[in-house]
Amino acid sequence: MLGDDFVRKIGKNFGIVFCGNSASAVLGLVSFTLMARALGPELLAYFALSQAYVRIINDIFNVQTWESMLKFGAGETGSKKLASLVKTNLVLDLVSAWIAFGFSLLMLQGVASYLGWTDALVTVAEVYIWVIPFTLTTLTIGVPRWCDRFFLIAKIQFGVAIIKVVLISVLFFIDSSVTTFVAVYVLAEVLLNCTLIFFSVRLLNEKLGRRWWHSTLQLDLQQLTFLWWTNLRTIVRIPVRHLDVVLINLVMSVQAVGIYKVYKELIEIINRFGDPLNQTLYPEYARIIGRGQSDQAVHGTRRLMLLLSLLCVVIVVGLLLASKPVLTLFFGEEYLT
Q: Does residue 49 contact residue 264 with C-beta atoms inside 8 Å?
């Protein structure tokens, strides 16, 4: 049955992405733990607030085009239309990324003044802002998933995670500043995006020919409507995903932000299981729904939801039992205050 094939394919791609994400997540957690241990709650809050500021601005002003790439590229077979779709989304990416970058610079002093940020925190935010121009989701997310190159994504993520943990380890032992730690995080994120962009361009050259960039721009009402609603959803999710850190900064101390960030990172372990599923589901949904096979998608989704729910219960129970000793051992008593 197609439903079983759907589940098997999702399972295969989920396994590839999950293994890559898990290995990268473990290394990422090691990097974060070393940074948190070296900086302490107050300086860790500088990292958390800078990251939240950049992500909020990016989500508001930087158009997320990768979903459009997958939806409208899934059922398209003509290379000219595909090339036009990719180019249009990429141009939207480039323009909106630099708009977001500009707004992040223009708004920083006003936001810092309102929230009572120190000059040191503003400097850290100015460093983190440089992530934005390299956040081109058509190439960093859309093209690799459209081509089913999940193993490639996993390898790149793992390689960059190794580089980051090595650099963070060096900084940990030489007693570096918060700005230096944040600079390494920015370097790792930029390196990840640039590597994905490089390989995505190679994939496009293979599938669409080297002249795909010379195709015409084309943005119809259906695509525009889809982009509007998907990006509105991203904006609506900002309070849940990023604004919590800023609100804690408003009503509590800076140290409380650093402590909260540690707990939030530990809870993110659960998302490590959901993210690979999201990454693998969307391209498959785009394909089978595009073929009018919605019933099979519903059948497969129910089975996957049951399996994922059971897995999440196990993880939550494990976190409840292990959170206090883990915090004490790896982060220090100061994060239990």
A: no
